[in-house]
Amino acid sequence: MISFQLASTIRLGIKSLMLHKLRSALTMLGIIFGVCSVIAMLAIGEGASYEAQEAIKKLGSNNILLRSVKPAEQARAQGGGQRGSQLKYGLTYLDGARLQTTIPGVLRVLPMRIIRENVRFARNEFPCQVIGTLPSYADVAGAAVLRGRFLCYMDEQHKDNVCVITTGLAQRLFPTDDPLEHSIKIDTFYYRVVGIVQERSQPEQRSQSGKMEGQPLDNNVYIPLSTSRTRFGEVLIRRSAGSFEAEEVQLHQVTVQMRDTSAVETADPQIRSLLDHFHDQNDFEILVPLQLLRQAEQTKRIFNIVLGSIAAISLLVGGIGIMNIMLANVTERTREIGVRRALGAKRRDITRQFLVETVVLSVGGGLIGVVAGVITPFVVSQLSDMKTIVTVWSVVLAFGISGAVGIVFGLYPARAAARLDPIDALRHE
Amino acid sequence: MPAESAIIRIEGVEKRYALGGEADVLALRGVHLHVDPGTYIAIMGPSGSGKSTMLNILGCLDRPSSGSYWLGGDDVSRMPDDQLSEARGLKIGFIFQSYNLIAQLTVIENIQVPLLYQGRDVRLFHQRCVDLARLVGLGDRLGHRPNQLSGGQQQRVAIARSLVNDPLMILADEPTGNLDSRTGTEVLDLIDRLNAGGKTIVLVTHDERVALRAHRVVHMKDGLIDREVVNRPPPVPQ
């Protein structure tokens, strides 16, 4: 009964709005844009922060990353182009051992030597990162072995010339051959390919999107750490136009894997003070993915607030537009209101009628806005290669706000209509 | 008192309008009026005579400043707004000079409007609405909009609309004012037929010839009933 009445009120509301199609459509436009922008903006923000978080998560939330950094003062002192200067800095094997034994909650310490070198097979040659590391790398970094095996302790002990390559590199180096039957040449030595791995993220898609900065992630060659030490030595020489640079770096990166996430926070300052004690210069950096993740979440929150405010303002403007039109509507239909009152309509019937009309306008606009708001991020991600995520809650929120805008901004015109004196209203021309 | 059988019993009704600071204007100055069921009564009077105020009070659109108004045995003179609305919807069928149909609704929907405000399920009353449309000769125009109808047709829709809740009386305000004499006559004939069927009619008009159709003609002047003419005897209430 009640629902039937409501249904007929809604039908009547739509009919009244259809009398002025253009006017109603223009009024709806405000809400459409508002709702659309809420959903689209939140989707873009969500997508951006998702990408950042994924990148950080890839580093592992249980991990603490230590990297060797060329000390700033030294770099400046040597800036005049001194020939043949040798620079010694960075994390050492000893640091790794100290971390393993002193810091509580450490699961394992994974040292890495990262050397940039060209890798060749037959006529194919690509610049790669040659990473000397331990067999536990596969677990810590989450690399999946697709074929063959990863490095093992025998390789490490025997300083074998074996390597594991990433799928992307395998496809490029061996377009026709089976990599596992061949050896690749790095610098002056040959290394037997024993396995192919896939990194945790899908680097291939990322490199295609042309957004990779620095080294391509998937051009990696993994060799035993001991092999890396013997074949490349501790002093790395880099030649550049007319001069060369020699650096002595033992370890480029050390990944400290903690037992659980809670240990990460306490270990961070401990590691810093430990390393500070043994390093005279500031030649390392500590990266805590967990903290980065928190920062990213914080950034996202601020981003959401800013975008949300902008969208809220546009909805507010849309709401004012609705109110304006409804006030005009009430004035225009004063006579009708008088007639309805004479025919037995109570004040609340009039209030309901106009409120329903406003809500029909705003919810109708909201529905169209939701459709537009779901399509827009899709178009944006197609055009600009930006990841967007339309969340359910943003749709619900935007739609809910559009309904609320209808009620809030409809209430005043509806009340104004209901307050009209039936006699004056009937006499209104 | 025979008053209980009366449809309208107005006693000592005054209507005072405050004109901001100045002395109040008395539009009605203690009017008495009894109307029995089945009576066709016309109210006449020049502008400023209190005729419009009388109409508003009779139509429950306004409350008297003092005095009492019983409509079908209920005192409507002190009713709160919501009850007054209900009284209008249930007990009074309005016919206006300018028809006042709702533009966005079809003929049948216009007839249904008063049902809606009494919380009645329109579907159950559909046949009644169709019958009323036939009664006023518009059975074949149910889906038309007011702007597709002539003035006379619109007024007949308004009459059908006024009957849908089976009111105690029909209150017609210059129903032929906007019509040419031929269609005006048709509408008045229709009202005569309703009265012949037992409906109480209160008709406000300027037109002497229109007033001649009523049993009683009440002439108003300066906020009072000046004189009353009985054209023909009203039916005796049972």
Radius of gyration of chain A, rounded? 33 Å
Which two chains have the most extensive interface, and how many residues on each? Answer: A-B, 26 and 29 residues
Distance between the termini of chain B: 14 Å
Using only C-alpha atoms, the radius of gyration of chain B works out to 18 Å
Classification by helices and strands of chain A: alpha+beta
Low-confidence stretches of chain B: none
Which strands sit side by side, in order, in the main sheet of chain A?
3-4-9-6-8-7
Determine the mean pLDDT of chain A: 84
Mean pLDDT of chain B: 91
Q: H/E element string of chain B?
A: EEEHEEHEHHHEHEHEE
Q: Helical element count of chain B?
A: 7
Taking the sheet with the most strands of chain B, its summary is:
6 strands, mixed
Question: What fraction of residues of chain A sit in β-strands?
Answer: 15-25%
Unreliable parts of chain A: 79-83, 202-216
* Morphology of chain A: elongated
Defining key terms:
heterodimer, A: 429 residues, alpha+beta, six-stranded mixed barrel, 15 helices, elongated, B: 238 residues, alpha/beta, six-stranded mixed β-sheet, four-stranded antiparallel β-sheet, globular
